[in-house]
Amino acid sequence: MKRVGYWISEKKSKKLNFEEHRPIFRNAGIELVKLDLTQPLDNQGPFDAIVHKVTDILAKADNGNATSQQYIRNIQGYADSHPECMLLDPLDSTRRLLDRYKQYQQVCTCDLVCTDPRVIIPTFVELTTTDVEQNKMKLAEAGVTFPIVVKPILSHGSRLAHEMAIIFSKDHLQDVEVPCVAQSFLNHNAILYKVFVVGSRQFVVQRPSLKNLYPGNHATIFFDTQEVSKPGSAHPLNEIDAASIQEPLVKPDWQLLEQLGASISRAMDMCLIGIDVIIDCQTQQYAIIDINSFPGFEGVDDFFVHLRDHILQQMRTKDNCDTTSPAPQPAPTFNTNTTTVTKTAAAKTAATNAANLKVSQKFILEQSRLIDCSTDNTAGSVSLKSGKRSGSKNSCGSKEEEAAAKEPILAQLRSNNNLSPDLHPH
Q1: Distance CA 333, CA 315 (A)
Q2: Which domains are delineated in the chain?
Q3: 3-state DSSP call for residue 119?
Q4: What is the rounded distance in angstroms from the CA atom of residue 103 to the CA atom of residue 415?
Q5: What's the pLDDT score for residue 244?
Q6: Of 128, 192, 278, 383, whose CA is between 20 and 30 Å from 249?
Q7: What is the DSSP letter of 108?
Q8: 175: CB partners within 8 A, 6+ apart
Q9: Where are the beta strands (DSSP E) in 191-308?
Q10: CB neighbours of residue 20 within 10 Å
Q11: How confident is the model over 3-11, as a mean pLDDT?
């Protein structure tokens, strides 16, 4: 029987119900072993593979925490002395995600970003000073346009990693907290696409996101991304207002989203990641805005089955490299180059995405009833930290005018009901 060690935080383990899925692995000839990082792994092995979520430990280790440094040495030391053991994912690859600026630089090397004009990363720049004049110059040189999203450099390892700000003009650059990455904000009709990657398989889940925002002399908005984009979020920043419904809706290209997931996986040298993608409602370009190591995989049915299949496939590939005998045929998988998805799997994937699409449509329809017809955009600032509107005025017109304003988006959504969200396997 193969032995696979794993380490994830207690909180994440309970959320995923990791222990309850042991039979899935045991029935495939895999013994799952929970690692104790306080003890040498040689005493707990041998291991054919180690699966981990140690981004928080890595962040603390890089910040000088002695205990975390020992944990990382324990894992890396075992992997170095046991090359037969696969590390999912490599620690060096995981570490690259911790620094958002380096993460974005790595995304720029992605083959799809380099060759397909439909896929981009919004312009960004690293800010290390609170000097407003210097920051104005850096933003201009990098082509970063307002509104801007200000994101902490550290992407994991702290609650602060999720606290961001929207700055609408250069007059409010004093609100920048450094070190950070400033990135152009692209309007995307309050829809975020989570592309989850498990080995050679990609899964697309739709989530709420920030509503459309425009440059101007508005107060800075502070928010927590975990509140804004969590499943079922009803945050004020998700609300679609009168200005937003003037933007065209975009039908997602499911196959392109999957190709994007596979391409980022190759560029980052990681096989268990989540990629945040938005679609610019003006250019219809697919913009990569964040990458996470070993995310929660909410919305991915049978995650542990896919994880098991990926581990088995990796083991077969490794065995094939270590011997001269031909490797067994891998279990059916779906990727952008080869169609190996069974009809049952394809149907299930299509059904999952159809459900996701309906949830998104329902979300927009519900939010369209909450349209804020205010003509005074300057007065309506929102604090992410308080989660409340402040000082907004409501100058809505008649019910007929409101209905007329909503009609374009409702008509488009009715049209989208005929959209097939299949992943279109070739």
Answers
A1: 15
A2: 1-88 (3.40.50.11370), 99-299+344-416 (3.30.470.20)
A3: strand
A4: 38
A5: 63
A6: 383
A7: T
A8: 150, 165, 167, 220
A9: 191-198, 201-208, 221-224, 272-279, 286-293
A10: 10
A11: 95
